[in-house]
Amino acid sequence: MSEGIRFVFRGEVREIDKIDPTLSVLRWLREVEGASGTKEGCAEGDCGACTVVLGELVDGSMQYRAVNACIQFMPTLHGKQLITVEDLASPDGALHPVQKAMVETSGSQCGFCTPGFVMSMFAMKVSEGRPSRDRINDVLAGNLCRCTGYGPIIEASEKMYDAGPETAFLEEEKRVVALLEGLSSDAMVETADKGRRYFAPARVDDLARVYTDNPDAVIVAGATDVGLWVTKMHKDLGTVIYLGRVKELKEMRVASGYLEIGAGVSYTDAWDEIKKHYPDFGELIRRIGSTQVRNAGTIGGNVANGSPIGDTPPALIAAGARLVLRKGEERREIDLESFFIDYGKQDRGIGEFVEMVKLPLPKAGSKFRSYKISKRFDQDISAACGAFMADIEKGQVKDIRICFGGMAGTPARAKHTEAALIGKTWDEETVKTAMAEMVKDYNPLTDMRASEAYRAKVARNLLYKFFVETSQVGEKVNTRVVGDRELAHV
Amino acid sequence: MSDRTMANEKNNAGIIQGGVHQNHLHDSAHKHVSGTAIYIDDLPELPGCLQVYIGMSEKPHAKIKSIDVSAARKAEGVACVLTADDIPGINDYSPVMGDDPIFANELVEYVGQSMFAVAADSIDNARAAASLVKVDYEELPAILTIEEALEKESYVLSPNEMKRGDSATALERAENRLKDRILIGGQDHFYLEGHIALAIPGEDDDVLVHSSTQHPSEVQHNVAKALGVSDHCVTIEIRRMGGGFGGKESQPALFASVAAMVAKKTGKAAKVRLDRDDDMEMTGKRHDFIMDYDVGFDASGRIEGIEFIQACRAGNSADLTGAIADRAMFHADNAYYLENVTIKSYRCKTNTVSNTAFRGFGGPQGVVGIERVIDAIANHLGKDPLEIRKVNFYGTTDRNVTPYYMTVEDNVIHELVVELEADADYAARRADIRAFNENSPFVKKGIALTPVKFGISFTTTFLNQAGALVHVYTDGSVHLNHGGTEMGQGLYTKVAQVVAEEFQIDNNRVKITATNTGKVPNTSATAASSGADMNGMAAQAAARTIRNRLTDFAAQKFQVKADEVRWLPGRIQVGAEEMTFPDLVKQAYLARISLSSTGYYATPKIHYDAQKMQGRPFYYFAYGAAVTEVEVDTLTGEYKVMRTDILHDVGKSLNPTIDLGQVEGAYIQGVGWLTTEELVWHPSGKLWTHAPSTYKIPACSDRAPEFNVRLWDKGKNAEETIYRSKAVGEPPLMLGVSALMALSDAVASVGGYKIHPGLNAPATPERVLDAVDRVREAAAG
Ligand SMILES: Cc1cc2nc3c(=O)[nH]c(=O)nc-3n(C[C@@H](O)[C@@H](O)[C@H](O)COP(=O)(O)OP(=O)(O)OC[C@H]3O[C@@H](n4cnc5c(N)ncnc54)[C@H](O)[C@@H]3O)c2cc1C
Ligand code: FES
Ligand code: FES
To answer: Where are the alpha helices (DSSP H) in B24-66?
Structure first.
């Protein structure tokens, strides 16, 4: 066990022995450190004004990721490097190429969003090569600018690459790597402040133990839900157990027909692997939150949170995913579908946590699609999210699984609709009949995202879209206005 | 995409660096990108600085039977709790009408209305204490929609009418006639920096308030009024805002007043900083409108008579609604000649937050109204809407008088539109789109070109005045101050360019300083796009006074005529002598010449009779046009803007890069308003979309992959504005209307373009899908 947290900040190891487990990185920067370059625009992960970059040693090399400082908790920085906008310019005041490009293209007007953009762009520049416009859109989806209309920022995101590699930064990196290596350990990290306790185990067995001992604790994975309980609902979470250090939960592997995704795997890390097997699920992940949210958030958390509007459960359920739960030494495996009992109620016992999500590999010839409907394409919560998995053999529906989020109190299968399709010819008439059945499956609500009528209608139409996309012969018609349009035809 | 990269701005002998018409960088750009630009929340806090939380009404309409703050007063860390009873002066922060209480006293009129404030050692303690306050409400029936308000004749101000010609007769006689109702949604400003005020108590009755405001003078007056002290006791300062867009015109007075009262009561610095949710719930937005129209037109689509009923949601108080609703009336014509026209305006009082200024100030809603009418006419006649637009454009020599009897003297809309039409290849693309739609059963494309003509000046004539203060120090460095505020629009930079030009010195010799009511008094809001027009002129006047003194001094000293003193880039030629600006300044100082001056400007020519709604409310008009192309998924109503082409007239631009930024940003903001930005109220009267998780402004990918934008190179202000430039803040917002009309065009395709989709704004995917289904059903008969 090690008391207190250690992280690299401003080139040195910062040691803090006692810290409020749910103090946000943003508040610490602004209110404790007096580092006011990082801004608060929303305190809920949606605007990106607070974007900072975390450096982390992964398999021996540094990985840099942008996250929202407003919803990340301080102790989760342990063992990482925190990079903020103040770190970019060189000591003599010369601007970093990202900053220079933003100045030269007039990428700032009021400037309040700018530090956040600079950090998102910086994370991209140190991690990947010249981006396409689509890639820029994805990298910047979590940074809102109300002034510029984005044009100059997009231009700067290209132009900054003209400056070439990050020589100075990479030089400094060597030193940071040594510092971070010094901090790496398998011991549990603990800290506490005013009676609130924080545990960050590094091994899953330690996690199982500490959670059994503290069954009232709140589990935190990426904090992209939990963070908001603190910043928006102003809740006192009491004891917190952080999963982000647990090695076993960060693993992902293909085994006996399943892609096994550890509960601590971020969207960003799961993305490529999922896309490989389910291209359209990959497209769905691209549209979950933003780069910052995907860098922190996990599929495990999306499931465990139990929300009826989480985007991965419908896709996972349609694909027939299973869930591995663990309590102490005991494990059990269930169909993910049965995990969602009712609104706000999941099949998870006291002291039990999600260990992994098992996504079956698709059968040859089966068709999978997922569709996310929201007001804005990027970084929006679904009004409805539908996923379809069908085995069509010789024009007959052998099997079909349809699951929607946003249509009921839980992610829910469309059983009546499925029944109207199974065993039938995969043609327009069958599909129209099945669409009419959907009223029996869902009784959606009206809220700020959409009306009941729209939800019902769009859900029906998505079945039709799935049919169109999977039944076309000859020249393919376009059915999509965003993303990789070819995904409609794979 | 245009290359925004700066031209090399070397100070060669020929030209100063950062003078007018140059692509001079925003003065704070290097600070923005490095996190060193200081916003109010970044100012170091004084020891003991209190954090203030404002307690809000939970009911849309209720009598307050009692407010019990006793538990809050005793709570941890609390320094003081203020209610209406604790206000030393007058309980009002309204801009005009005296109807905005700082703390609701007996009555609450919207969810989110300020009722009390708790100041504590931390915001967490202040918020926690506020939750202990017990309010006993007696609920009253609430009016939550414009329709209800119209029905109950609930208004904040009496209805208004503008009339020219005989619309009733023209309508009766017209060959074709259409009537419809248009819904136009509101819009949250979503400045990235929320409202904030930091008050620092001074001696006697003095207080300094750092306020994120576009209108320091009004904040000053309101703070003084709340404290019950004279205006001269209160100083308001603002270096920069993290965005304003009109949202920080009248409303900052509330937060500044609360902060100032806490500071004076406790003797400690006090900060009011709203978090995003509180900001969105407590503060007003763009007015949503219901518009009914009745239009008569001939076979060519020319409008013969038209009647509009414009009803807007003022919210619980008047705020600036009068002028906003007026401006909607002034822009009901947009760029079109309306011979016989009647416009009625209703300013509805509802139990929702009081709506306020927002970029365009009612103008955009007026423009959406008439553009919808044009599209309906086009669909009815089976013609290209652009053809109908052209048929109705204002003339240059005849058909050029507005419904408010102002002659349009500077009309360039034909020329500009024809140029854009060619640039954007409108006709060919429109034909291609029709062909595409024939063969694409689910994804439909649409295209539209819409113009904008926007009147520049405050329609409240006396507001069209500005002041500036320029000091020259003995080393030749210049200190510049004026009444305009910087919210990202580049005003400070432009005004500094003007001053640099006047003295023929490099821009970096001109120090831009925070707007401060102690330096330049009695200023108007930085609003109505007038910032550079007015403050540029005032600063020029101040600089010119000093320059003239220097010229006279040099002429006298070197025994030459005044016109032999020539101001060249970086130097002054005095007869045979040549000297630098600092040299001349030093000599003038030693000769006891004043090196400081104020400057003042009042916009000429304008006059307006508010009773009759006639006159010349505007000094001139700004023009522009945009073509937007969209793709719509007719199964889901989702859509994407694929291409944008903009041509906009900023006159002779003071700073093309900054102006381009304004044009692009405004267009995107306009598109957001009309597409994804939907304000939804819960049936209980609470705003349901009070954070970016639910209120969706455009993101990066919402910008069209192909985006061509150009400032009109023929542009030149017909009036003698500052270097013949034109205002740019608001007009381009209305370029976004082309996106709404392009969506309408795409939807119309499912009915063979014969049925007008009647697509309301914001055109969310839900609204688009509904319109698709409606058109399909109507087409099927
Ligand atoms: C700006 C923003 C945008 C978003 N957009 C989307 C979106 O488009 N689509 C979408 O679906 N979601 C979206 N979300 C929510 C999404 O990010 C979360 O649901 C995320 O997947 C949760 O993962 P996490 O690791 O952050 O979980 P946390 O926030 O750390 O935890 C979430 C919940 O799960 C519990 N938990 C986490 N891991 C475990 C475990 N292993 N065992 C037991 N309990 C556990 C926690 O106790 C908590 O109750 C968004 C969030 C934000 C802030
Ligand atoms: S402050 Fe908006 S994302 Fe963090
Ligand atoms: S520059 Fe103002 S929000 Fe981006």
So the answer is: 29-34
3-state secondary structure of B683: coil
Contacts of B398 (CB under 8 A, 6+ apart): none
Is there a domain that residue B673 lies in? yes
The β-bridge relationship of strands B50-56 and B270-273 is parallel
Instruction: For residue A61, give both structure tokens.
Output: 């090399």
Same-domain status, B453 and B470: no
B343's CB contacts (< 8 A; 6+ apart) are B161, B162, B163, B307, B308, B309, B310, B329, B332, B403
Of the candidates B124, B127, B116, the one whose C-alpha atom is nearest the C-alpha of residue B81 is B116
Same domain, B626 and B547: no
Q: B732: Cβ–Cβ under 8 A, 6 or more apart, which residues?
A: B452, B624, B646, B648, B662, B663, B664, B666, B667, B670
- Residue B658 to residue A106, Cβ atoms within 8 A: yes
By annotation, the residues of B acting in catalysis are 730
Q: Is residue B8 predicted with pLDDT exceeding 50?
A: no
pLDDT digits (tens, 9 = 90+) for B561-570: 999 999 999 9
Mean pLDDT across B245-271: 98
Confirm or reject CATH 3.30.390.50 for domain A373-475, answering yes or no.
yes
pLDDT value of residue B430: 98
- The amino acid present at A244, given as its one-letter code, is G
Number of domains into which chain B is organized? 2
Cβ separation A137–B25 shorter than 8 A = no
Identify the pLDDT of residue B14.
79
Query: Is there an atom of ligand 1 within 6 Å of A224 CB?
Result: yes
Chosen from B34, B443, B445, B689 to mutate, greatest number of chain A CBs within 10 A:
B34
Shortest Cα distance, chain B CAs vs residue A172, angstroms: 19
Q: Are residues B498 and B422 in the same domain?
A: no
Residues B690, B567 share a domain: no
Domain of residue B775 covers 418-460+618-781
Ligand closest to CA A144: 3
- Same-domain pairing of B550 and B653: no
d(CA A145, CA B281): 21
CB-nearest to A95 from B30, B440, B693 is B30
Chain segment A416-458, per-residue pLDDT in tens: 999 999 999 999 999 999 999 999 999 999 999 999 999 999 9
Single residue among B568, B602, B636 that ends a domain in this structure = B602
| Sheet of strand B478-482: strand arrangement | B510-512, B478-482, B465-472, B596-602
- Considering the domain architecture, whether residues B470 and B556 belong to the same structural domain is answered as yes
Atom of ligand 3 nearest to the CA of B192: 3
The 8-class DSSP code of residue B626 comes to E
Contact A44 B29 (CB under 8 A): no
Residues of chain A with pLDDT under 70: 1
Is residue B518, in this structure, part of any structural domain at all? yes
Q: Provide the residue type at B739 as one letter.
A: A
Tell me: do B596 and B622 sit in the same domain. Answer: no
Q: Degrees (nearest 5) of the Cα angle A487, A488, A489?
A: 90
Q: Find the residue in A nearest to B192 (Cα).
A: A41
The answer, yes or no, to whether any atom of ligand 3 lies below 6 A from the CB of A153, is: no
| Interface-testing mutation among B123, B192, B730, with chain A (most A C-beta atoms within 10 A) | B192
B717 inside domain: yes
Task: Report yes or no on B413 lying in a domain.
Answer: no
B450 and B574 share a domain? Answer: no
In tens, the pLDDT along B477-525 reads 999 999 999 999 999 999 999 999 999 999 999 999 999 999 999 999 9
Ligand 2 test: best mutation among A27, A30, A53, A70, most atoms within 8 Å of CB? A70
From the list A106, A380, A477, the residue facing B4 with the nearest CB is A106
Confidence at residue B13, expressed as pLDDT on a 0 to 100 scale? 53
H/E stretch holding A16 reads strand A12-16
Domain of residue B630, CATH code:
3.30.365.10
